[in-house]
Design a protein that fits this description.
Elements: H1 3-10, E1 15-16, H2 21-25, E2 36-41, H3 44-60, E3 64-71, H4 83-101, E4 104-110, H5 119-132, E5 136-139, H6 147-163, E6 179-183, E7 196-199, H7 204-211, H8 226-241, E8 246-251, H9 253-261
Parallel strand pairs: 1-7, 2-3, 2-5, 3-4, 5-6
Antiparallel strand pairs: 6-8, 7-8
Helix pairs in contact: 3-4, 3-7, 4-7, 5-6
Length: 263
């Protein structure tokens, strides 16, 4: 196998360069259809840095995008900014970033580092899913060292189940989510295996500008240079998928099994 065929084989699982994720992955869907995508993140920065490019790409193609942040990420504050003030800075940054890519931003504001995994939080996200009725949900992969990310994964898992349960009476009717994906996140890397590549070149600059709304993006509030990591990662993923810039997702193992059974 030469270098070219190796690169092609690495990125060949599902390259979504010219079609929206709903039509690429949902059976029987017309290629012109666009999806409504809901990204659910533990903290606002996680959502925009790891899921924002997918939202921007789908919105550009005529779909809609929503970013739900379970907390404000206020405990990531540097020493010179009070925690509550930093939380409001995070809220403002997310609203500005979402506006830039054309998405809607909503917040639950659970305490950062204390996002609870329980019936209340799962049903609250369930209600948001029933209200906004997304086709696709993107959230944290479970293989994370971060407690909030782990809990967010579990909350969304149960919320999607509850949202689609016709016999569960809530204020809004049931809604079944078609697809679930997990984004590539340096904090959620354990056993993450990407199988979906999305060409984001047309929205790359817009996404970078949106990410730059956050004080933490360039490492101003901590040790990690998010800008260098995620911009470089998009180039590397682009190399493997035949585009300039790409991001990857991992599909839920259950929907992969269902897809294989339909062949």
């Amino acid at each position: 196998m030469n270098r070219r065929s190796f690169a092609q084989s690495v990125g060949s699982a599902a390259i979504l360069s010219a079609i929206p994720i709903s039509s690429a992955l949902a059976q029987g869907t017309a290629a012109s259809r666009t999806a409504k995508v809901m990204a659910v993140a533990a903290h606002p920065g996680d959502g925009m840095f790891t899921m924002g490019a997918v939202l921007a790409q789908q919105i550009e193609r005529g779909g809609t995008g929503l970013l739900l942040s379970l907390s404000l990420g206020e405990r990531g504050a540097p020493k010179n900014i009070p925690v509550q003030q930093y939380g409001e800075l995070q809220r403002a940054a997310t609203e500005n970033a979402a506006r830039l890519i054309g998405a809607e931003a909503i917040f639950f504001a659970y305490p950062d580092a204390e996002i609870p995994f329980n019936e209340e939080s799962s049903l609250r996200v369930c209600d948001a899913i029933r209200e906004h009725r997304p086709d696709v949900v993107i959230t944290h992969w479970s293989g994370s060292w971060h407690k909030d990310h782990q809990n967010c994964h579990l909350i969304v898992r149960d919320a999607i189940f509850y949202a689609g349960l016709e016999t569960l009476s809530r204020s809004l009717p049931a809604h079944a989510v078609s697809k679930i994906f997990y984004p590539e996140n340096w904090e959620d890397a354990a056993n993450f295996v990407p199988d979906t590549y999305i060409d984001i070149d047309s929205v790359y600059e817009k996404w970078m500008q949106a990410c730059d709304c956050y004080p933490m993006w360039r490492g101003q509030t901590g040790f990690f240079r998010y800008n260098d990591y995620y911009s470089s990662l998009s180039v590397m993923r682009g190399c493997l998928s035949g585009s300039r810039h790409a991001v990857t997702l991992m599909s839920d193992v259950n929907q992969r099994s269902q897809h294989l059974q339909s062949l």
